[in-house]
């Protein structure tokens, strides 16, 4: 991912938090000479050795899985809030741009066994059911329903490299920076307001 030095995020704890909060990602690989991508939850977890990995699952009917046997190199892309930045918000003439946060994780993928896949499902469901009024638990699902789990491949990704970009108008002076935040907040657009919130964290 092309990232000018000014926008590189090398704060490991911040990147981990981002991955946990924005875990619906895009898994990309090459299958039969073509690039393939699937939009799925991909969770940051620790393996049995205490090493950080990514884990998730895809349907066995998804042809993308065929490529894992040919070439286990994959890319997982995660995006956070993003927003258009109008140059009318500056006190000088300049070009419009886009502010955003994104993380790319490169690694090697391996398919896991059925029992491990079910354990992954339990963690995933528990994470997203935590605030549910009537939380569902995988352990309580019927044998008939759980047969559907036979239709997925669970996987783990050994992380080899992480590239993180946080482009939030760091190149602007304080006056213009504060004005951008103010204009973003006026939009009533949830993405723009989220960008404004992230910008406010970066510069008091």
UniProtKB/TrEMBL annotation:
Q: InterPro entries annotated for this entry?
A: Split_barrel_FMN-bd, TR_PAI2-type
Stated name of the protein: FMN-binding negative transcriptional regulator
Species assigned in the record: Flavobacterium tagetis
């Amino acid at each position: 991912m092309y990232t000018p030095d000014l926008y590189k995020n090398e704060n490991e704890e911040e990147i981990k938090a981002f991955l946990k909060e924005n875990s619906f990602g895009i898994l990309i690989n090459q299958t039969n000479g073509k690039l393939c991508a699937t939009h799925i939850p991909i969770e940051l977890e620790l393996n049995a050795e205490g090493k950080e990995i990514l884990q998730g699952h895809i349907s066995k009917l998804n042809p993308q899985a065929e490529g894992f046997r040919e070439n286990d190199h994959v890319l997982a892309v995660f995006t956070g809030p993003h927003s258009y930045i109008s140059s009318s918000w500056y006190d000088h003439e300049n070009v419009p741009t886009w502010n955003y946060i994104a993380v790319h994780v490169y690694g090697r993928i391996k398919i896991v066994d059925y029992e491990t896949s079910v354990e992954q499902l339990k963690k995933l469901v528990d994470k997203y059911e935590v605030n549910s009024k009537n939380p569902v638990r995988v352990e309580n699902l019927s044998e008939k329903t759980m047969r559907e789990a036979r239709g997925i491949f669970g996987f783990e990704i050994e992380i080899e490299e992480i590239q993180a970009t946080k482009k939030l108008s760091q190149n602007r002076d304080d006056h213009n920076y504060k004005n951008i935040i103010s204009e973003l907040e006026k939009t009533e657009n949830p993405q723009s307001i989220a960008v404004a919130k992230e910008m406010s964290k970066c510069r008091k």
